[in-house]
Amino acid sequence: MTAAGLTRPPRLRPGDRVAVIAPSGPLALERLDGGLDILRGWGLDAVAGPHAAGRHATLHHLAADDARRAADLQRAWCDPEIAAVFAARGGYGAQRMVDLLDWDAIRAAAPKPLVGFSDVTVLQEAFAVRAGVVSFYGPAVAGEVFLKDEATREQLRRTLFAPEAERTLAPEATMPLVPGRARGVTLGGCLAMLASELGTPQARPGAAGGLLLLEDVGEQPYRIDRALTQLLRAGWLDGVAGIVLGSWARCGPYPKVREVLADRLGGLGVPVVEEFGFGHGDRALTVPLGVAATLDADAGTLTLDVPALT
């Protein structure tokens, strides 16, 4: 990752064909159909991966087996007729299939937007480290928030079709946990996944020089403490330029979560902004990963140097 960020894919245009895949957990068919219909309403030719509606024969927390889920992603990414790849949901399973991908073929293919969050953090980190491509930490298109919240959908649509309109992100509820300004390249995603990726082939050596996004769901404060402590002890947070905190849905009372965040991150001496609105909340902001930006914790803004897509 250079100071200028990663390779930016082309923006979407009406008529583009896009693929929706299930790299992790299984889907409710009505939600998959609902997400496809919304994308088609944007003027896109949205198609589901062959195994998007699959189920693992015995491990019911997975959508199809590892090889089939990997094949859906591989096929979509390497197909020159596909302009973007959307994850239908998170859950668990990306770790099981990421090493089955043909990374030489992925690097040789033209870059395109990869959109997802939560467990998809594993894939976004791998695409950053192994392929050098910008991705988008944004809503799952078969997820409840995307299906129900118009503001979530519209901000993602602008990000993909008119990225110059989404260069400054400024959620209303955000506030500084540690004041200050910082510049760096955006990275990160789901805290538990970042901690669990340490030591794996696609794990980056650390967040030095970066603006680190962190959020999670269903993790009690002591488990958030544990994951942050793991990153700290591993030296992964050494040299981080700034931190952007998203939602902590179902993680216990937020004041308790905030105490842990302040305790573990406040001593790093870098700006930290909280409640930035991305992740598992009732509204999900889309944030590009791999783009150089400026964080102003006092103003509650993240301003990209350039649009996230060309």
CATH topology of the largest domain: Rossmann fold
Question: Can you name the CATH architecture of the largest domain?
Answer: 3-Layer(aba) Sandwich
Report the count of strand segments.
14
Supply the number of helical segments: 10
**Strand numbers in spatial order across the main sheet:** 6-14-13-8-9-10-11-7
CATH H-level homologous superfamily name of the largest domain: Murein tetrapeptidase LD-carboxypeptidase, N-terminal domain
**What fraction, in percent, of the residue positions are helical?**
25-40%
Question: Order of SSEs, N→C?
Answer: EHEHEHHEHEHHEEEHEHEHEEEE
Low-confidence parts: none
Strand content: 15-25%
The description of the largest β-sheet is:
8 strands, mixed
Q: How many separate structural domains?
A: 2
Q: Indicate the mean pLDDT.
A: 96
Distance between the termini: 18 Å
Radius of gyration: 18 Å
Structural class: alpha/beta
Q: What best-fitting shape do the alpha-carbon axes yield? A: globular
Name of the top-level CATH class of the largest domain: Alpha Beta
Oligomeric state: single chain
Describe the structure.
This protein has 310 residues and is an alpha/beta fold. The protein folds into 2 domains: 17-165, Murein tetrapeptidase LD-carboxypeptidase, N-terminal domain (Rossmann fold, 3-Layer(aba) Sandwich); 168-304, LD-carboxypeptidase A C-terminal domain-like (Glucose Oxidase, domain 1). Helix content is 31%, strand content 22%. The chain is built from 10 helices and 14 strands. The chain has helices spanning 29-41, 66-78, 94-97, 103-108, 121-131, 144-148, 150-161, 191-196, 221-233, 254-265; strands spanning 17-21, 45-48, 82-87, 114-116, 135-137, 168-169, 175-178, 181-190, 210-217, 242-249, 272-274, 287-289, 292-296, 301-304. The strands form 2 sheets. Strands 6-14-13-8-9-10-11-7 form an 8-stranded mixed β-sheet. A 6-stranded mixed β-sheet has the order 2-1-3-4-5-12, sandwiched between helices. β8, α8 and β9 form a beta-alpha-beta unit. α9 runs parallel beside α10. It is globular and about 50 Å long. The mean pLDDT is 96.
